[in-house]
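Let us practice reading a record.
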Amino acid sequence: MKSLSLMTIIFSLSLGFVTGCSDKDTQQAKLDPNLPVIAMSDLVKQAYNYTGKTITVTGRFGGMCADGEDFYFKDKLVMIEVIPPVEGMPSDITIGTPLKVQGVVLSQNEHEEEGEEKHDEGDESESEVKIQATVILTNRS
């Protein structure tokens, strides 16, 4: 009976260490203040200028996408998708929560989606913009 109790205690302690009793979980990710803050409307209009670059964008949480992994991020009438970082999202987010998102801009031109090539460099057709987030912070005052 003692060995069963001892095994249970050892298992419980081991499980505690594995599931996150570390200082790493208590540290909040930090924004890099040296990265530019871009207006979401400018990001969508000029996605080709920001593709592959790491930037910061402010807006509001608009809800989860249908895939259940990405979320909608909006500012007034402009909306993009954000792929959350591996660490996940802050737990206190609800629809309308102000956020700061920092990450790498991913965009795909509509012509590229349809398998067409972009022929004219001046062609400013709409791009689907996503951000692969590295940091997501609530932006409450």
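A brief commentary: The beta strands are 54-64, 71-75, 78-83, 98-109, 127-138.
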